[in-house]
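Support request, please re-run this one:
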Amino acid sequence: MLINVHLLTFGQLGPKQSLVRLEHYFELNEDATYSHRVTFDLQLLFKSQGTIGELLELTLDANLALADLKRLDWLTGDNESSHVDMP
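Re-run finished. Output below.
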């Protein structure tokens, strides 16, 4: 496992369904080395569990598909947008 990624949850939901929650330890620009986007092969990481047939990316609390997430955007004290584009 990578040093900047934490396996938060690995739970069996059904005979062929699991909940895997991963979190990135570092915020954007928090660390010069570890704040960057991370890519790894989930199938390789969980190969002992069998073949991954389907994957759905959820929010960290696992109650909403990430594609359906609508973040709030507001103006900060210096009249800048609170939205930050991820690289």
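The longest strand covers residues 5-14. The CA atoms of residues 15 and 81 lie 45 Å apart.
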